[in-house]
Amino acid sequence: MRIPDETRDQLAVRFAVLFPHLNERQRRLLMAAEARGLGHGGVRAVARAAR
């Protein structure tokens, strides 16, 4: 399943807002929760959004 570019863009905005306020462990937990919520293809989408 392909995650739409719009969803990845929304993730990137969310990460940009939250990441400066989180430590490394919190960032990883947030990304894992987002990837799991997206389902198949979520890990790749989150990895690309977090760049």
Automatic annotation (TrEMBL):
Organism domain of life: Bacteria
Protein name as it appears in the record: Transposase
